[in-house]
Amino acid sequence: MQYDKVKRTLGDLCNENPFLRKCFYRLLNILLLRAWYINRELRRLKKQLPADAVVLDAGSGFGQYDYYMSRIATGWSIKAIDIKAEQVSDCNRFFERIGRNKQVHFEEADLTTFIEPDKYHLSLSVDVMEHIEDDVLVFKNIYASLRPGGVLLVSTPSDQGGSDAHDEHDESFIDEHVRNGYGIEEIRQKMTNAGFSQVDARYTYGLPGHISWLLSMKYPLSMLNVSKLFFILLPFYYLITFPFSLILNWLDVSTNHKTGTGLKVKAIK
Q1: Interhelix angle 85-97/18-31, nearest 10 degrees
Q2: What is the pLDDT of residue 139?
Q3: Which residues is 152 bridged to in the sheet?
Q4: How far is it, in rounded angstroms, from Cα 201 to Cα 146?
Q5: Residue 121 — φ and ψ, nearest 5°?
Q6: CA dist., res. 122 & res. 45, Å (int)
Q7: Cβ neighbours of residue 168 under 8 Å, at least 6 residues apart?
Q8: pTM to 2 decimals?
């Protein structure tokens, strides 16, 4: 499925109005289970990192995590980079309009070449690494850009059905992915090889989360990929499925999973 095409359409509907953009961010935080995991970690890290921490969002996309961080940690200085110039420009306009452009700045950059030595206390990478072929190089670049004791927080699909691929012959649900998912030991080893001394990798999207993903993401996005006319039906669809997804997401983040279709990884320099 051409996920980027659907994301652009959804984003375009909210880009011109800051209020709609904020509502869109909040909707993503509720529907996307990975946002439940990442935002919980960010709240924990807020208590551990300096009040004036310097943060790198390595692959910022819509900028929803940058908006969240700017809300919960007003003293953090955030640089958000993405390879897509249009998204970078759009995010800079939005943050300027809401008066947070001094705290959050977006730049176009390629993670395979981006290095700013010993600068950042925290680097965030959410649903990015599955799009990058030379992932080890990116891990090394982020490691070099972190200060000693700095934290890298990653969310990515696992090889246990991540990207909706359940064996080596399945194709990813998302056409833009270069890999279907990481093995938990594979990503630990790659981060260790990049220099990280502490790597904590855990499964996310257990059975409750996987069902929630089907209801809240796969089925509606598959419909939208067929025709934009499904935008008319989308509110009614979510009116029915939203309460179930909410309960399933809560169950997933409240449980330790022996396996799952996602991975949350926290590594320390």
Answers
A1: 110
A2: 97
A3: 123, 267
A4: 19
A5: -85, -30
A6: 9
A7: none
A8: 0.89
pLDDT in tens, 212-250: 999 998 888 888 777 778 878 888 999 999 999 999 999
CA-based nearest residue to 42, from 81, 71, 14: 71
Burial 127-152 (b: 16+ CB within 10 A, else e): bbbbbbeebeebbbbbbbbbeeebbb
What distance in Å separates the CA atoms of residue 3 and residue 176, rounded to the nearest whole number? 7
CB neighbour list of residue 235: distance below 8 Å, 6 or more residues apart: none
Dihedral sign from CA coordinates of 52, 109, 269, 37: positive
